[in-house]
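Action item from last week, closing it out:
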Amino acid sequence: MKERSKVQDIIWNIMKELNTYFEKEHIEYYMLGGTLLGAVRHQGFIPWDDDIDIGIPREQYEKVLNEISKFLPENLALYTYKNEKSHHYYFSRIVDKRYALKRMGSLVEREEEVWVDIFPLDGMPNNIFIRKVHMIRLLFARMMYHIACFDKVNLKRPNRPLSERVIIKFVSITNFWKKLDMYKWLEKIDKLLKKYPYDSSEWIVNFMGQYKFKEMFPKKYYGNGKMYTFEEYKLPGPENADGVLTQMYGDYMKPPKDQEKNAHAAILNED
């Protein structure tokens, strides 16, 4: 077995606790993004990656938010934007309170507990025209949310689209972000994402992931799920992992160049 970093070890211990809970409570979940890529290409963590991302269909996601805290050991906690002031993300996290990472790359250096990210998987309109309109509304709300928490955005993330770089430049010059209420836009995103039920939708999305609508797929891509080797476990992912990863990364079996590696700008604080 390949050697893991200390941060990866901490994250993996969180994930094992979560997997036990999900199996016990029959929660459907899937590895997402770089976690799924790691499973397919490395049979575990991408060597330079330092998190795990999982997605849960919306109805079960809400159940997890309501119930999981009762099952967590003392060192772990659920963070959402509704229960933890320092948590400015729309998605949720399970954190290990014993360990902190120094986050760099934003205007304000800060610390965050080591985490596993949990994203809701949401339905999208079946009608293509209505879907396009819904996508525009979501993108606008997401842009306003990111502007509202501009001081926390990782400005050093590689491979940002030109449109994002232009917005970042504009906001940094004008200080426009200071006039916006982040929580108002989080609530707007929440309302929009819950509009179309997962079960009756032919298309589903992890909209608040890094790749936005590159993570919108026909629901049949997820199918009944499939088990993939991740470290010493088998974890569930989409049935059509090739379709998912090709849409997100292109030639995903080819490792990126060093300057294109998208690791979090963070170091473990061992003080």
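Closing note: The chain has one domain: 6-123+198-269.
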